[in-house]
């Protein structure tokens, strides 16, 4: 049995802690915030990616598809089924044509059926398919994670900011701190890597009651997407361009001061800094109902991705050694958390 520290209380760190404890290790999970799954794990589109989102990266699509089963097995109670999931392939400005997208789906064993639903996706702007993808309820997922950590015997330490000496107090340390990864590794005297950091906004809206809960993605390019926010009756908007308020490539995120009060605080009502109107202007030509969207607030977080991946939009899940007795997990695909936890546990 090893004494194991896991730093980062997002879905990747929490899952790693659960799996390590189930293997009999004495596991301590450290999260600097007062609640688990509060940052990027709780501020996203809540979509359980199956691979449809990545027609320019077969590896990412395959990774999402293969990891889906393990997520469903572990966190099934948080998964929302029965919601239609639509993908619209833009007729202008898309990096992938409709024909090529269907070829991609077939080649990667991603089921679909072509549909025409003009009240949801304007056929003049995009061709549409319906796919058997799912989403998750972030509130239920947080409750499940908390319960599983308790059942596995993990010691959870909230509101604790770890420093470099943490790895000296444990036999193994797993770093799953996402956008804060480098600051912790540097404090440990370990090598850091450059990432592309993005300060992102996720507007939350209400839609007319006539709108049947649907998850819609317009790909593949600078387009919009919208999906249910768990069981709240509200919807979360995404946009490839307008969601990003600032971006930098480096070892640490460069966060404009005006966004610091907004970050990782859940929904901020009436934010002074918002691109909501840009989301609507860009999105309503594809998704007509967006012209009736009412802005109730926005969520803000920092996203981290590998730099220089614009051509493929690759989103790998990386688990490996960061130094003697230190393991790191880096990924932005929530559905891959169980596979990453298993890989990290094997390295212990």
Would you mind describing this structure in some detail?
The strands form three sheets. Strands 5, 6, 7, 11, 12, 13, 14, 15 and 16 form a nine-stranded mixed beta sheet that branches. α1 packs across α7. The mean pLDDT is 96. With 348 residues, this protein is of the alpha/beta class. β13 and β14 form a beta hairpin. Helix content is 23%, strand content 28%. It has a single domain, classed as D-Amino Acid Oxidase, Chain A, domain 2 (2-Layer Sandwich).
Q: Given the helix and strand composition, which structural class is it? A: alpha/beta
> Which architecture per CATH?
2-Layer Sandwich
Instruction: Please name the fourth-level CATH homologous superfamily.
Output: D-Amino Acid Oxidase, subunit A, domain 2
Overall mean pLDDT stands at 96
Which oligomerization state do the chains in this entry correspond to?
single chain
> What is the domain tally?
1
Number of helices: 7
CATH third-level topology: D-Amino Acid Oxidase, Chain A, domain 2
Gross morphology? globular
Q: Main traits of this protein?
A:
348 residues, alpha/beta, D-Amino Acid Oxidase, Chain A, domain 2, 6-stranded mixed β-sheet, 7 helices, 23% helix, globular
Short description:
The protein has seven helices and 18 strands.
Topology of helices and strands:
Layout lengths: L2 E5 L3 H12 L3 E6 L15 E2 L9 H18 L3 E2 L4 E6 L7 H10 L5 E3 L10 E6 L2 E3 L1 H15 L2 E4 L13 E4 L5 H7 L7 E12 L8 E5 L4 E5 L6 E5 L4 E7 L25 H8 L10 E12 L12 E6 L2 E5 L6 H11 L1
Parallel strand pairs: 1-2, 1-10, 2-9, 5-12, 10-18
Antiparallel strand pairs: 3-8, 4-8, 5-7, 6-7, 11-14, 11-15, 11-16, 12-13, 13-14, 17-18
Helix pairs in contact: 1-4, 1-7
């Amino acid at each position: 049995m090893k004494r194991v520290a896991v730093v980062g209380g997002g879905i990747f760190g929490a899952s790693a802690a659960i799996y390590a404890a189930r293997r009999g290790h004495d596991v301590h999970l450290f999260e600097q915030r007062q609640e688990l799954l509060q940052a990027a794990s709780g501020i996203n589109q809540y979509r359980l990616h199956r691979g449809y989102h990545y027609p320019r990266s077969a590896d990412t699509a395959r990774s999402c598809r293969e990891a889906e089963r393990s997520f469903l097995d572990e966190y099934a109670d948080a998964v929302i089924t029965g919601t239609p999931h639509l993908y619209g392939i833009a007729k202008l400005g898309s990096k992938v044509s409709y024909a090529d997208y269907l070829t991609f789906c077939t080649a990667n064993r991603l089921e679909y059926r072509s549909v025409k639903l003009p009240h949801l996706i304007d056929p003049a702007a995009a061709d549409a398919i319906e796919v058997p993808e799912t989403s998750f309820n972030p509130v239920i997922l947080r409750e499940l994670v908390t319960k599983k950590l308790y059942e596995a015997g993990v010691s959870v330490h909230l509101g604790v900011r770890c420093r470099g000496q943490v790895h000296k107090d444990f036999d193994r340390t797993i770093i799953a701190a996402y956008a804060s990864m480098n600051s912790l590794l540097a404090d440990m005297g370990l090598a850091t890597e450059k990432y592309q950091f993005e300060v992102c906004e996720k507007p939350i809206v209400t839609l007319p009651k006539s709108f049947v809960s649907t998850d819609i993605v317009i790909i593949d390019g600078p387009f919009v997407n919208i999906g249910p926010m768990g069981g709240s009756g509200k919807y979360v908007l995404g946009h490839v361009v307008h969601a990003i308020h600032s971006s930098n490539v480096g070892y640490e995120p460069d966060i404009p001061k005006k966004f610091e009060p907004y970050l990782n605080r859940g929904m901020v009502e009436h934010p002074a800094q918002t691109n909501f109107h840009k989301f609507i202007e860009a999105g309503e030509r594809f998704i007509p109902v967006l012209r009736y969207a009412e802005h109730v607030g926005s969520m803000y977080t920092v996203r981290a991705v590998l730099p220089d991946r614009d051509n493929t939009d690759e989103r790998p899940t990386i688990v490996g050694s960061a130094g003697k007795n230190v393991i790191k997990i880096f990924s932005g695909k929530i559905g891959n958390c169980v596979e990453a936890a298993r890989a990290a546990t094997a390295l212990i």
